[in-house]
């Protein structure tokens, strides 16, 4: 089915209006919150815009950038249609009573990582005893990833000092203000290396492969309009496949889609590292791995992120990626 119109994008700097508003009205508008700033790690979404995959699916997609916990609450309330969110966040939100469900895996491997300067003499996880570890906050994927890493590495929480440092991990590690910090493997460690630092890194998935970032929607939208959910998921999945196969062209789309795009050499390194984490690992691209989700639920319960044991299958579905 062919539709006329363009894709509208909400970015941090404001709204980019469609050039043919009357024709865009024929499309179904969906609101998508990304949970982070415009970034090359959203390349599959930008590719789906630029290549017309969303438009071909009958969708007029608006991207907004907001904090993840608020986004999941708005999702459950029906104020928005989709959220790019960590699977661990979705499960935790669902277990707390929000009616949300994860419908597309973007990161096939959990992307949280602990990183440090090699001069710190941290070589194994056990060497973290007695160190100060920076986290953006004591919640979210980076924090849960740290808990899992320490647990699987048999390092007691009482033996480390966890310090919230907002999103200043690169500067704090570079200045030796913390011994190590948690972030996303495709992001902060790459940036620190780009500054010329010798960086060590523990990728959490090698110890505990928690459900990583992907797309979530509400149970009410699945019930009310499953065709719309499938249309968005399939168009985004097309964007993922294309980006993995055409990283150079996808990077060009990022440059067109991100306001005030800077440091292209660094951004290309970030994209390439992200793609390595998107590639399938045990299940087809975009699918949820039941083993990963069971582990996620058990880790969140172990560290009291969720108040009681839950069946992980209640918080994701492969219905729309097949």
How would you sum up this structure, described in words?
The protein has 322 residues and is an alpha/beta fold. It folds into 2 domains: 9-108 and 211-315, Periplasmic binding protein-like II (D-Maltodextrin-Binding Protein, domain 2, 3-Layer(aba) Sandwich), CATH 3.40.190; 112-206, Periplasmic binding protein-like II (D-Maltodextrin-Binding Protein, domain 2). Helix content is 39%, strand content 18%. The chain contains 13 helices and 12 strands. It has helices at 21-24, 43-50, 53-56, 68-77, 87-95, 140-152, 169-174, 188-194, 219-224, 226-245, 247-257, 264-278, 290-302; strands at residues 9-11, 14-16, 28-33, 59-64, 82-86, 100-105, 112-117, 132-135, 161-164, 180-184, 199-203, 213-218. The strands form 3 sheets. A 5-stranded mixed beta sheet has the order 4-3-5-12-6, with helices on both faces. A 5-stranded mixed beta sheet has the order 9-8-10-7-11, with helices on both faces. A two-stranded antiparallel ribbon has the order 1-2. A hairpin with a 2-residue loop joins strand 1 and strand 2 (14-16). Helix 2 packs across helix 10 (226-245) and helix 5 (87-95) packs across helix 13. It is globular, with a radius of gyration of 19 Å. Mean pLDDT is 91; it is low at 1-24.
